[in-house]
């Protein structure tokens, strides 16, 4: 059953779209050819998620800083950092580094 649903989803996503003109002169779009001269439209590729999103990087950095500040407060109180929080901070650090890889910051504009 799951395979049938997956197959249906992939075939509909890969379908063709045809641009046609009906008898009244209106433009219509169909998933089947509407005439001898109809040709499938070239659709844009699916947008890819940018791993270099400034918003995502800022959110990761904020969370890393928040977890770091929490660890510092705990250390001041004589408490050890929670293992889960330490693992999360390390994981977020790796994600942040991966998102920043290959990005070079441009020099600030001259004043």
Which residues form runs of ≥5 with pLDDT under 50?
1-13
Radius of gyration: 26 Å
On the 0 to 100 scale, the average pLDDT is: 74
Number of extended strands:
2
Q: Tally the helices: what do you get?
A: 3
Approximate shape:
elongated
Could you estimate the helical fraction of the residues in percent?
40-55%
Characterization of this structure:
The chain has 111 residues and is mainly α. The chain has a domain at 54-100. It contains three helices and two strands, in the order H-E-E-H-H. The chain has helices at residues 2-13, 54-76, 83-100, and strands spanning 18-21, 27-30. The protein has a two-stranded antiparallel ribbon. Helix 2 packs antiparallel against helix 3. The chain is elongated and about 80 Å long. The chain starts with a helix and ends in an 11-residue tail after the last helix. Mean pLDDT is 74; it is low at 1-13.
SSE inventory with pairings:
Elements: H1 2-13, E1 18-21, E2 27-30, H2 54-76, H3 83-100
Antiparallel strand pairs: 1-2
Summarize this structure briefly.
This protein is mainly alpha-helical.
List the defining traits of the structure above.
single chain; about 110 residues; mainly alpha; two-stranded antiparallel sheet
């Amino acid at each position: 059953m799951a395979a049938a649903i997956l197959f249906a989803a992939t075939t509909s996503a890969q379908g063709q779209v045809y641009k046609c003109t009906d008898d009244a002169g209106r433009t219509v779009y169909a998933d089947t050819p509407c005439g001898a001269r109809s040709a499938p439209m070239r659709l844009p590729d699916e947008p890819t998620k940018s791993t270099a999103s400034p918003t995502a990087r800022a959110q990761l950095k904020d969370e890393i800083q928040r977890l770091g500040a929490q660890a510092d407060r705990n250390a001041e109180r004589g408490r050890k950092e929670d293992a889960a929080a330490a693992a999360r901070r390390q994981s977020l650090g790796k994600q942040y580094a991966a998102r920043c890889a290959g990005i070079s910051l441009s020099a600030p504009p001259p004043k």
